[in-house]
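Margin note: ligand = adenosine monophosphate.
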Amino acid sequence: MTAPRTPSLVTTPEELRAALADGGRVGLVPTMGYLHEGHARLIERARAESDTVVVSVFVNPRQFGPREDLSRYPRDLTRDLGVAGAAGADLLFHPGVEVMYPPGYATNVTVGGVSEPLEGSSRPGHFDGVATVVLKLLGLVGPDRAYFGEKDWQQLAVVRRMVRDLNVPAQIVGVPTVREASGLALSSRNSYLTPEGQERAAVLSRALRAVQAAASRGERDTARLRQAGLDVLAGEPEVSLDYLTVVGGDMAERERVENDPMTRVLVAARMFGVRLIDNLPLWPDLPRQAGGEGT
Ligand code: AMP
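Resulting structure:
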C-alpha cells in the first residue's frame, strides 16, 4: 500500500524545476485529468519505480479537432489531487494553456509511420498534438521513466517511436488497461455516458474478446477474425463503427495475422454521441516484449 499524500500543485516550469531539484529517479504520468482507476494504476506503477512521481494534468487543445469535445472535456482538479495523492503522486503539474503555448509558439512534432492509420486518419492532427505535448512534458520534467496506458495503444506506439527517433533519454513504460466489471475500458469520456450507456458500451470489449477467442481457436485470416468481432457489434444498434482491425506493432493490417505478442485487435466507435476506443492483444498469453521495452 502506498501512503496517501497530498501532492504539491505546481503550475509553471520554474516551480516544477525547483520542486524537482534532488528528485532522484523521476517518474512522469501525463494525463488530461478527471483521473480514474486507470490513471491511478499508472501512478502506482510510477510510485513503485521512482523516488519522485509527477502527474501532469493538462487538457491539450492541440490534440483536439475543431469539432471535438475540448470545451466540454470533464475537469475536476480538486478530485484529481485526491486521486493522484492516494495513488502516490508527489507533484501535480497543471500548467495553463498560455504556459505551454505562449504567444509566438511555433513548433509542431510530427511522427510518421505508426501515427498515420486508424486514429491518425480519423482524427487529423491528433497525434501531432499528442507528440508535441508529450515531448514538451518530457523536456519540462526530464523523467527517467514515463508511463502510458495500453488503452491508447497507437498513442503508446507513437510516443515510443518519437522517443527512439529523437533520442529522448526517458524509458517509456506501457501499463495494461483497467476495465469495469462489464469489460468497458475506463476512460474520462465514459462520464459522458449514462449508466445504461456505459453498460451497453461494454459491447466493444465483448467484440474484442470474440476476436481473441477466434484467434485462440486457430483462426489466422484477418477478415474472418474481424468478422467475429463485427458479429458481436451487429447486436447493438447504437454502435456507429469507425474501425475494427487487427494490426501488428507497425499499426499495419495484414491478410493473415502473425503469432506475435504485438498483434493487437483495435476498435473505435461512436456510441450515444461519444467516441470510444479500445484494444486487446490477440494472444494475451504470449510473453510481452511490446516493441518491446518497458512493459
Ligand atoms: P488521458 O487522461 O485519457 O489522456 O490518459 C492519460 C493516460 O492514462 C494515458 O497514457 C492513457 O492511455 C492512460 N489511461 C487512460 N485510461 C486508461 C485505462 N482504462 N487503463 C490504463 N490506462 C489508461
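Residues 290-295 have pLDDT under 50 and may be disordered.
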